[in-house]
């Protein structure tokens, strides 16, 4: 559909600050934020957007966040993953959503890794919508890891330095197989992309919303899509 992004990347910032504002435990905001992702999926569906990529957990978060908070986040993730596996009424099954998780997944707890693998399997045939979840992810680290893989292939004689181009780099990214985001939206009134899809977002439209993620409403979403439609994308030309 003309004027509508095919792929939207989202940095859902402000969960903890929203909870503090309501005098709740800061981590309660993550639960509200998870529910908001499901609402935003419905808004994307209604607008004709087929692909969502959510920045759920950065690599830096694994060392910068308190262990109690990480424990809460992983428990929340396991709850949602189990629902995707066992509940056929879950939104991923009702809407035929293929789930993809990428990042340094090997750094996550083993039980979380196992559930992610099962979710991949039960949704791998779905093609109506796609939801990517970046966990233990960093854009710079993704590029470094791709370079390591390419370097190993060159050392083993499977690739030549002259073979390196943008396409070959993409094949070694964690996000390999998905087109670049047309729009990246960040809530929380922070105006930066925080190491999110830094290669893939070279020509993405960026929008920053002065609302915490749990307080992000349908009207805010519609305004962002209308603003996107008004912009002229030049792709460096």
What would you say about this model in short?
With 237 residues, the chain is α/β, with parallel strands linked by helices.
SSE topology sketch:
Blueprint: E1 7-11, H1 15-21, H2 28-47, E2 51-58, H3 61-64, H4 67-86, H5 91-94, E3 97-102, H6 110-123, E4 129-137, H7 139-155, H8 166-171, E5 183-186, E6 205-208, H9 218-230
Parallel strand pairs: 1-2, 1-5, 2-4, 3-4, 5-6
Helix pairs in contact: 1-2, 4-6
Q: For the largest sheet, list the strands in their spatial order.
A: 3-4-2-1-5-6
Distance between the termini: 23 Å
> The CATH topology, please?
Undecaprenyl pyrophosphate synthetase
Give helix and strand order, one letter per element, not per position: EHHEHHHEHEHHEEH
- Helix vs. strand class: alpha/beta
Mean pLDDT: 94
Q: Detail the poorly predicted runs.
A: none
Beta fraction: 15-25%
Alpha-carbon Rg, integer? 18 Å
CATH architecture, please? 3-Layer(aba) Sandwich
The CATH homologous superfamily is named: Decaprenyl diphosphate synthase-like
Q: How many structural domains are formed by the residues? A: 1
* Helix segment tally: 9
Largest sheet: 6 strands, parallel
Coarse shape:
globular
Give a count of the beta strands, DSSP E runs of length 2 or more: 6
Approximate helicity band:
40-55%
CATH class: Alpha Beta
